[in-house]
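User: Reviewer 2 asked us to show a designed sequence for the structure in our supplementary figure. I'm pasting the structure tokens here. Could you produce the per-position amino acids so we can include them in the response letter?
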């Protein structure tokens, strides 16, 4: 899943190339109303991307696991097949194509699709107090699930969930109630510190401590990294069993 930092880089690239320009063609038919309108702003928000157009209309896209925006020169060969394109915006000198985004919709109120989100992990200033308050009201059963809860804090995905927990030697299965506010604050700040440098360097070029490294040695203690599905959505958690502890087992039934 693209994390908040990927969406930020995407938004920055789109902003550079299309902000202030007029749409010469928009497809499919559902977004054809954008034709002839000027792009006023491109805004990342958590994992959502909002393009605002003149006349008070916005294009909302959410990338989930699969989506991505590409920019091409007119006539340039696309890196993905046309049938996977979910939106195409043409301008005089550039074409913006979104592939495989599960959410692509026109909205009148640009705030509406993101109104439920917690503070964005990448924004300056970062509203950490509000995040902690939302976290304490959350019913997320574990730290791993809490970090992915976009209503608490927007923009953290599975990679930085794993990396931040490893950095602080915390178990992804630890119940939220066992962590005091000070350590909870440090957890979000650690995720933010890990993600902020990626606003300039693409994620693919980075090395992760645990994510994607199942069976390889923990950079801190050398123990093989383990992987385990967690939560209702069975997101894969990578962890060091020595630094972070074993996942909690279900208590045995009492007789
Ligand atoms: Zn370790």
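Assistant: Here is a per-position design you can include in the supplement:
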């Amino acid at each position: 899943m693209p994390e908040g930092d990927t969406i930020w880089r995407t938004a920055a690239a789109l902003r550079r190339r299309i902000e202030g320009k007029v749409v010469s063609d928009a497809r499919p038919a559902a977004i054809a109303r954008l034709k002839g309108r000027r792009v006023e702003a491109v805004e990342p928000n958590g994992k959502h991307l909002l393009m605002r157009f003149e006349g008070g209309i916005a294009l909302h896209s959410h990338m989930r696991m699969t989506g991505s925006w590409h920019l091409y020169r007119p006539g340039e060969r696309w890196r993905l097949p046309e049938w996977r394109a979910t939106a195409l915006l043409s301008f005089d000198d550039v074409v913006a194509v979104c592939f495989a985004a599960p959410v692509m919709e026109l909205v009148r109120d640009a705030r509406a699709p993101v109104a439920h989100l917690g503070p964005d992990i990448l924004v300056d200033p970062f509203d950490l107090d509000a995040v902690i308050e939302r976290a304490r009201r959350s019913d997320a059963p574990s730290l791993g699930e809490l970090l992915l809860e976009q209503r608490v804090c927007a923009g953290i995905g599975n990679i930085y969930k794993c990396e931040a927990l490893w950095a602080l030697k915390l178990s992804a299965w630890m119940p939220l109630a066992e962590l005091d506010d000070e350590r909870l604050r440090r957890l979000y700040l650690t995720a933010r510190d890990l993600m902020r440098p990626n606003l300039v360097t693409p994620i693919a070029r980075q090395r992760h401590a645990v994510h994607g490294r199942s069976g390889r040695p923990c950079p801190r203690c050398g123990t093989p990294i383990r992987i385990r599905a967690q939560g209702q959505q069975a997101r894969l958690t990578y962890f060091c069993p020595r630094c972070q502890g074993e996942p909690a087992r279900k208590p045995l039934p009492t007789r």
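For the response letter, you might also mention the following. Residues 218, 220-221, 223, 240, 242-243 surround zinc ion (CB under 6 Å). DSSP finds five helices and ten strands in the chain.
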